[in-house]
Amino acid sequence: MFPSTQTLNSAFKGTQKPFIAASPAEKGAIELNSARYFYTCAAGGVLACGLTHYALTPLDMLKCRMQVNKSLYSGVFDGFKKVASAEGLKGLYLGGAPTLLGYSLQGMGKYGFYEYFKYLYGNAVGEEAAVKYKTLLYLSASASAEFIADVMLCPMEALKVKMQTSSTPFATSFLGGLRKIHAAEGINGFYKGLTPLWLRQIPYTMVKFATFETTVETIYKKILSKPKDQYGKTEQLGVTFAAGYFAGIFCAIVSHPADTLVSKLNNVAKAEGESTGALAVRILKDLGFAGVWTGLVPRIFMIGTLTGMQWFIYDSFKVATGLPTTGGAAPKKE
Considering the domain boundaries, does residue 331 fall inside one? Predict the structure, then answer.
């Protein structure tokens, strides 16, 4: 999936030094910005996104249902009570299988390609420009990564939303749900929400990564008294979680209107001859300004917790494999 470090460096030979040079690796260690490094980051992304999204399936399910029918529950706790009473724990984890698979795939693309594009774009513009405009580097790398990651996520997101928001059980099994969507709508049924998903996830991820990187750097420079490398890994992971949670709050606000639209698109049937774009416009008109913000409070709690835990799991995995935690230090000049 990712080119080797030698391939990347040869592509830029005679132009400038790499933005983050591949470090000399000890025997058996993972060399920074090598193909193995990018694959390791992708594996960390699988764990970070798949596990956290699955764990928060009950909250996500209630959020989706409230977006589709805002009068269904009076609030989050009312929703938990009603679902648990009527359907038990199984009901709270409705849509868990496509959530786990879909967001594992998305995490693989999101984190792996973010590290790859950050390295690639940094080399393309040169070390001086990459350091000077590092926030633009974070934004462009994360947007590129999420564009790919959403193509991997979209089919599972379509199934998840249908399972969680249908008034009657959508399907009796995961494979049955996939077959039902394909039989009714073909491949388009899995990807009709892709554009709204991009509108939701790309701004979300740009805010998530840029805010996280900036917050980590700010914590070490302005709040803590020592450089990052003078703190232990446990302390660094504490900074990771705090910065991740802070970034998550902004992510939830930026991406919420598009999130509401995705939920409605996968729940509302098209009129005869109606395009996906026309359906989206009709839904937005019906919702109005206030309607697109339905479910924001539970989503802020969900996304803040989710983002904080994702970064914590991701960086913990990196530490376990011998890699440094993310952010907090400017690239070193050679």
Answer: no
In this prediction the pTM is: 0.77
Calpha distance 138→121 (Å, rounded)? 10
Number of compact structural domains in the chain: 1
Check: CB of residue 130 under 8 Å from CB of residue 176: no
Taking the C-alpha atoms of residue 215 and residue 245, their distance in angstroms, rounded to an integer, is: 10
AA letter at 290: A
pLDDT in tens, 275-296: 777 888 888 888 887 787 877 8
Tell me, what CATH number does 66's domain have?
1.50.40.10
Structural domain that includes position 308: 30-320
Weakest mean pLDDT among 1-5, 103-107, 284-288: 1-5
What's the gap between Cα 324 and its chain centre? 21
Distance CA(305)–CA(58), nearest Å, equals 14
Question: Residues of the chain with pLDDT > 70: what percent?
Answer: 89
End-to-end CA distance of the chain: 29
Residue 84 has a CB neighbour count (10 Å cut-off) of 14
Amino acid at residue number 288: G
Instruction: Residue 27: count other Cβ atoms within 10 Å of its Cβ.
Output: 4
For residue 332, being part of any structural domain is answered with no
DSSP H helices in the chain? 5-11, 35-55, 57-68, 76-92, 96-125, 127-132, 134-165, 174-185, 188-191, 194-218, 233-265, 276-291, 296-320
The DSSP code for 202 is: H
Q: Whole-angstrom Cα distance, residue 93 to residue 116?
A: 34
Confirm if 51 and 293 have CB atoms less than 8 A apart.
no
Contact 331, 130 (CB under 8 A): yes
Distance from C-alpha of 314 to C-alpha of 334, rounded to nearest angstrom: 28
DSSP helix/strand/coil, 200 = helix
DSSP letter (8 states) at residue 327 = S
User: Does the residue 12 lie in any domain?
Assistant: no
Q: Is 4 within the bounds of a domain?
A: no
